[in-house]
Automatic annotation (TrEMBL), chain A:
Task of the protein: Exhibits a very high intrinsic GTPase hydrolysis rate. Involved in the addition of a carboxymethylaminomethyl (cmnm) group at the wobble position (U34) of certain tRNAs, forming tRNA-cmnm(5)s(2)U34.
EC code: 3.6.-.-
Subunit structure: Homodimer. Heterotetramer of two MnmE and two MnmG subunits.
Residues that bind (6S)-5-formyl-5,6,7,8-tetrahydrofolate: 25, 89, 134, 466
Lineage, broadest ranks: Bacteria, Pseudomonadati, Planctomycetota, Candidatus Brocadiia, Candidatus Brocadiales
UniProt-recorded Gene Ontology molecular function terms: GTP binding; GTPase activity; metal ion binding
Domain GTP-binding protein TrmE N-terminal: start-end pairs: 8-134
Compartments in which it is found: Cytoplasm
Name of the protein in question: tRNA modification GTPase MnmE
UniProtKB/TrEMBL annotation, chain B:
Gene name of the encoded protein: mnmG
Protein family membership: Belongs to the MnmG family.
PROSITE patterns hit by this protein: GIDA_1 (PS01280), GIDA_2 (PS01281)
Residues that, per the record, bind FAD: 11-16
Protein name as annotated: tRNA uridine 5-carboxymethylaminomethyl modification enzyme MnmG
């Protein structure tokens, strides 16, 4: 459970999100052998022959995704590196999915390794640098501060990301595993008592259920795939309510032609807005509106399908005009997506006396914005983020950190081992060994489960005591 | 008058007897005080030794040179190996004990031990000099001098007994209590808590209708507890099984207003794994019957222990409960069940050697540490006895870690996590369960018993012989081919046993292997994969365990530790990074910070973390 200094550690050392360039850093005795087995250099050169602090180009092949990922390698041999261990840096394109693939390849190497290769803990490179004497004693204080700060930061971020739907699902998996573990342990420790012991086929059934549940968490779902390009966010409203201006204001740039002539936006335009590390794919429906009559020419097929696909709908109104009237013209049935009501142009003088929102929309959050003054934009961003973090949108793949994914991956492996033991009809204590390992791995995401927790579960579910 | 000793042990129960024997055998002149010499090694509750995880403890005590297993073998009246349908790691021996015979045998062993002085005495106070205990003041004011004191007081510290509204003081019903000692502990600065436990009514066997009940017999070939016992010679008797029923439950439910556990008369916490009958019925109302074991208390008595209906209900309700049960309709209760509350000293105030952190040379073992069970008590007793002797001899304490023994798990849990209820051992508490088997307790621990002079030369050489044979056989079986496969490979097949091998390999057959050797070889071969996995886990664990935290560490001044972690570390004062990591509220980041702090203070912490790198790592050393 606690980090080992003999292990080889891996981390992405560029900030998450989109940047042109990303670095994966590997430190430890297995760094060079591990990369050597994966890397195909562009020129005929052996990895051992590369001098420290120079680079070599080539690619790493992903057999799963069937792609060659172009990378540059930098080698820093011990003790001439930050950690005073062998360090390999893999420089590549700053694309999160690509980084995930690379990490996946690297970490899947761990099975064959003597000392293991794993994700680094927050601040672990600094810790190693210190423990190996790279950082002098005077800097001990700052080394401790770095570890504290990085841990707290990661913890806050991880916890924030895990609120809502995802953490609920992982929690369910954890509960299932703990419950199964309690049943198995009860059958070991209280087999001499008058309690109902879990039958072998029931153990297998529950393990398979667990395996399915964890696999599902790890598999990018349909919606998840969309989420990888950003959360589908559609701006919808009467022409000329200021949708394009709003998008520009949110992005902080001039994007499409903005004019007072309704329907200036001719096509379905999309753009990516990043809030707190989460990408929203903004789609403007203006391009499919009836430009001539300043009206929506009925709900066209295109608009229908766009709205159907939407994960979030931003329903935009012109705040200077009668709201109910606007609503009548653009009324949509069966709006199932998350909806946020935007009353735009809050800077303009109101020309109508009907500013009450129609009762049909009363349940949705409302934000008053002005693309011109910037009023309400931060609140809108907050609402968008909350829709994700509050778990109302299923966006698992883009939200689970790679470390969390790695932990779940390991729990899946343990469950698989347990299934195999159970199918071989092994005794309970051998199955329990892997179920415990699975629980420990999930515990890295949600907080650990102790023996006391498992005992409590036993005592609450079984009447123990002769 | 003999009032000067090396060690004084207060309390002659299961912990006290083992503590005193170990200390005396290590050459310490040892006094063993008991409130009443007729109840030395009394079984306050059920007449049984061993059971799941507890059986392993007894085997470990035996491997260290303790007495519990030998006395059980000599006096036991029904032996059973539990969990035999499962793997060897969770097989556990259990025996019905003959209560009186057990007591008498243990008392005689204590009396026959040179260096050991049994005394009827009540300890009231300590003589302390500069935070160091130097003696005991008895009930009459008599002063005793000692270099070390071991408290093994069981439930006797302000024991308070409840039967319905009737409340009386006593360490057991009808016995005295120690009213003053826990106040003396408080005055020394100890935190003292209170726990509760209970016991069921005892019946006159003459009045039980056994014909209506199902007997449960022991094993046909009873296996001894002790590695030095050849054979069980005593005659074996059955237990009987019956059940509570709807009527029993109705009686309990309609009398809850008279149950001390529900009226608020009893406030302290009892064990969840050993609830009273009233608790079982209230908490598991869906269960329409509960099993009751009728266990004989000995061969020379008809008294029957009524396992399963521990209760503190008033006398008339206990009568009604018992009479509602099949086979017990006209049974006479000879002793009523009761609940008992008693003082304990939360064990986080102890070092892993069981010496208190507050007062030097004062050791606590057994129920005073919040445990329950004879086996848990005896295990702590022998450890405290050894460590008191070592302390006086100015030697390093004897500590077992979690990968070596259930005893290690037990003590580490107590001193690191403390306990909220009477603590009982379960196999699920042991991370390295597959290695901590009852069958290999001698191979794991006898070396320590021998080191401290508690295991005889003869027993030690017997173990050496066994080890040599095991190595020999394993080597032979790894080499010898039968067709394409080695003998080891063949034995590893699910249904294959040694008998199959003997049939196909004459040379192996000629070796006339003992049952014990065959068992060890078979386990090592059949469970090789799992055992190797646990060994790898243990290796990692040991590395952290070897990172000792020196006592000078000033947690107050490590500002990067979170507040909760700092407080916990201050309270527990862990001896190693591994122990620190097991404290609830101490996170991996806190451990990293601690590691850096220690390295920063010039402590050779990296030596144990990374032996190859250590020299380069700490050039300033």
């Amino acid at each position: 459970m606690y980090p080992e200094i003999q292990d080889t550690i891996v981390a992405v050392s560029t900030p998450s999100g989109r940047s042109f360039h990303a670095i994966i850093r590997i430190s430890g005795s297995e760094a060079i052998p591990c990369v050597k087995s994966l890397f195909a250099p562009a020129t005929n050169i052996s990895l051992e022959d590369i001098p420290s602090y120079s680079s070599v180009k080539g690619y790493i092949h992903s057999s799963k995704e069937r792609i060659n990922i172009p990378v540059s390698l930098y080698l820093m041999k011990k003790p001439h590196s930050y950690t005073k261990e062998d360090v390999v840096e893999i420089h590549t394109i700053g694309s999160p999915p690509l980084l995930e693939i690379l990490l996946d390849i690297l970490l899947s190497e761990r099975n064959g390794m003597k000392n293991g290769i794993r994700f680094s803990q927050p601040g672990e490179f600094t810790k190693r640098a210190f423990l190996h004497g790279r950082i002098d004693l005077a800097q001990a204080e700052s080394a401790m501060r770095i570890i504290r700060a990085q841990t707290d930061l990661e913890l806050t971020a991880a916890v924030a990301q895990l609120t809502g739907n995802l953490s609920r699902q992982i929690r369910q998996v954890q509960d299932k595993a703990v419950s199964l573990c309690a049943q198995i342990e009860a059958a070991i420790d209280f087999s001499d008592q008058d309690i109902e012991l879990i039958p072998a086929n029931e153990i297998i059934r529950q393990l398979e259920e667990l395996r399915t549940a964890i696999s599902r968490l790890l598999r990018p779902s349909e919606t998840g795939k969309i989420s990888q390009g950003g959360i589908e966010t559609v701006l919808y409203g009467k022409p000329n309510v200021g949708k394009s201006s709003l998008i520009n204001a949110l992005l902080g740039k001039k994007r499409s032609i903005v004019s007072d002539i309704p329907g200036t936006t001719r096509d379905v335009v999309t753009d990516i807005l990043e809030i707190g590390g989460i990408c929203f794919k903004l789609t403007d429906t203006a391009g499919v509106e009836d430009a001539k009559n300043n009206k929506i020419a009925g709900l066209t097929e295109t608009v229908q399908s766009i709205l159907k696909r939407a994960q979030i709908v931003l329903f935009v109104f012109d705040g200077s005009l009668d709201l109910s009237e606007q609503f009548l013209e653009i009324k949509v049935d069966n709006l199932t997506a998350n909806t946020i009501i935007i009353v735009n142009k809050s800077d303009l003088k109101r020309t109508s006396s009907h500013f009450e929102l129609p009762p049909e929309l009363a349940t949705y959050p409302v934000v008053y914005t002005s693309a011109k003054t910037g009023e309400g934009l931060e609140k809108l961003k907050g609402l968008l983020l909350e829709a994700i973090l509050g778990g109302r949108i299923d966006a698992i793949p883009s939200l689970m950190s790679m470390r969390q994914k790695d932990a779940l991956q390991r729990s899946l492996q343990s469950v698989q081992c347990a299934v195999e033991s159970a199918q071989r009809n092994e005794s309970h204590e051998f199955i329990a060994l892997d179920v415990r390992a699975a629980i420990d791995a999930i515990g890295e995401v949600l907080g650990s489960v102790t023996t006391e927790d498992i005992l409590s579960k036993i005592f609450s579910e079984f009447c123990i005591g002769k | 008058m003999h009032t000067e000793f090396d060690v004084i042990v207060v309390g002659a129960g299961h912990a006290g007897c083992e503590a005193a024997l170990a200390s005396a055998r290590m050459g310490m002149s040892t006094a063993l005080f008991s409130i009443n010499l007729d109840t030395v090694a009394q079984m306050s509750c059920n007449p049984a030794i061993g059971g799941l995880a507890k059986g392993q403890l007894v085997r470990e005590i035996d491997a260290l040179g303790g007495e519990m297993a030998k006395v059980t073998d000599e006096t036991g009246i029904q032996f059973r190996m539990l969990n035999t349908k499962k793997g060897p790691a969770v097989h556990s021996p259990r025996a019905q004990a003959d209560k009186k015979a057990y007591q008498v045998s243990m008392k005689k062993r204590v009396e026959s031990q040179p260096n050991l002085f049994l005394r009827q005495e009540i300890a009231d106070n300590f003589i302390v000099d500069k935070k160091k205990v130097i003696g005991i003041i008895g009930q009459s004011g008599l002063q005793y001098k000692a270099k070390a004191v071991i408290l093994t007081t069981g439930t006797f510290l302000k024991g308070l007994i409840h039967i319905g509204k009737f409340i009386t003081s006593g360490g057991r019903i009808g016995e005295l209590t120690s009213e003053k000692l826990s106040d003396s502990l408080r005055r020394l600065g100890f935190e003292v808590g209170r726990l509760k436990t209970g016991t069921p009514p005892r019946l006159n066997g003459r009045t039980i209708d056994y014909k209506a009940l199902t007997p449960q017999y022991g094993d046909e070939n009873p296996q001894p507890f002790s590695f030095s016992t050849e054979k069980i010679n005593r005659s074996q008797v059955p237990c009987y099984i019956t059940y509570t029923n709807h009527n029993t439950h109705k009686i309990v439910m309609s009398n809850l207003s008279r149950a001390p556990l529900y009226t608020g008369q009893i406030q302290s916490v009892g064990p969840r794994y050993c609830p009273s009958l009233e608790d079982k019925i209230v908490r598991f109302s869906g269960k329409d019957q509960h099993q009751v074991f009728l266990e004989p208390e000995g061969l020379n008595t008809l008294e029957i222990y009524c396992n399963g209906i521990s209760t503190s209900m008033p006398h008339d309700v206990q009568e009604a409960i018992v009479h509602s049960i099949t086979g017990l309709e006209t049974t006479e209760i000879v002793r009523y069940g009761y609940a008992i509350e008693y003082d304990f000293v939360p064990p986080t105030q102890l070092q892993p050697s069981l010496e208190t952190k507050l007062i030097e040379n004062l050791f606590h073992a057994g129920q005073i540490n919040g445990t329950s069970g004879y086996e848990e008590a005896a295990a702590q007793g022998i450890m405290a006895g050894i460590n008191a002797a070592l302390k006086i001899q100015k030697k390093e304490p004897f500590l077992l870690d979690r990968s070596e023994a259930y005893i290690g798990v037990l003590i580490d849990d107590l001193v690191t996590k403390g306990t909220q209820e009477p603590y009982r051992m379960f196999t699920s508490r042991a991370e390295y369960r597959l290695l901590l088997r009852h069958d290999n307790a001698d191979r794991r621990l006898m070396k320590y018993g021998y080191r401290y002079g508690l295991i005889s030369e003869q027993q030690w050489s017997k173990l050496q012989e066994k080890e040599d044979t095991i190595t020999d056989v394993l080597t032979y079986m790894d080499k010898k081919l039968i067709g394409p496969d080695t003998l080891a490979k063949i034995l590893s097949r699910p249904d294959c046993t040694f008998d199959h091998l003997f049939a196909i390999d004459a040379e192996l057959c000629r070796r006339h292997l003992s049952k014990e050797v065959k068992e060890q070889v078979e386990i090592e071969i059949k469970y090789k994969g799992y055992i190797e996995r646990q060994h790898i886990q243990v290796e990692k664990f040991k590395r952290m365990e070897d990172c000792k935290i020196p006592s000078w560490v000033d947690y107050q001044n490590i500002s990067e530790l979170r507040k909760e972690a700092r407080q916990k570390l201050l309270q527990i004062r862990p001896v190693s990074l591994a122990q620190a990591s097991r404290i609830s509220g101490v996170s991996p980041a806190d451990i990293s910070i601690l590691m850096i702090h220690l390295a920063g203070k010039g402590k050779k912490i990296t030596d144990c973390i990374n032996p190859e790198e250590s020299e380069k790592a700490m050039p300033h050393q």
